[in-house]
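Journal club prep — side note

Before the paper discussion, L.F. wants everyone to see what a predicted structure for a comparable chain looks like in C-alpha cell form. Sequence:
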Amino acid sequence: MTTPQQLPLGVSLRDDATFDNFYLSDSDPNRQVVALLQSFASGENPEPVIYLWGEAGSGVSHLLQSVCQSAESSGRSFQYLPLADLLGKGQAMDPAVILDGLEQLELVCIDDLHLLEGHPQWQTALFHLYNRVKDGGHQLLLGARKSPRGLDVALADLQSRLQWALVFQLQPLDDSDKVAALRRRSRLRGFDLPEDVAQYILHRAPRDTRALFLCLEQLDRASLMAKRKITIPFVKQVLNI
C-alpha cells in the first residue's frame, strides 16, 4: 500500500469535503457524475483523465477534494493542487518545479484550471504533466469554471489534450435544493435548521453553496458560544443580514 504524498505549500483538504457531504436530490442530474467519481477515486474506473467544470459554487472543488479523501481511504497516492492558492503565492514559483515528479503518484487533482488563462508557463508545465501522467498509466482529475473549449489557452496542444478528457459539467442546485442542502448540512453538524431560517439565509446571503455553508459554519460556532438556538433574529445579529 502506497502512502499519500504530503500536501505542500500549505495546501490542505477541507474535512467537510467528502462524498457524504455533497448534496444530491432524488432526481439530481449530478448523481451519475458523482458515482463515476467515486469509482475513479478508488481506482476501479481506469479512465486516465476526467475534466469537471461548473459555475462558482456548483461543487467542483468539493468533489475534487472528495476524490482525494476517498483515494486516501483507499491507500492511493495522490496530490491536490488548487491553482487559486498556488498562483496567489506570486510569480516567483516555477510551475515546472511544482509539477515535477507528480506523475509518479496514482492520482493528481488540479483545481481552478480556468486560472491558467494568461499564464503561459503554467500552461506549458501542465501540458507536460498531462503527457507524463497518461504515459505512466496514472490518473488526472481537473476542475474548472469553464469547459475545455471555453478556456482561453494560448497553447493549442494543451487545449486539444483537455478536450480529449472525459468531460462533465456540474449542474448547480436550484433554490429548493439549496434550502434542503443547508438543512441537511446542519443536521450533519448536530443541529436542526428550521426551514424559515434556511429560506431567510438563502435570500439574504451570497447564494452559491460554498458561501451558504460558510454562513452555516459561522452560525453554528456563534450559537455554541452564545448557547442560543439559530433563529432569524440570531441570524440577523451574527451575519448582519
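L.F.'s comment for the group: Residues 1-7 have pLDDT under 50 and may be disordered. Keep this in mind when we get to the figures.
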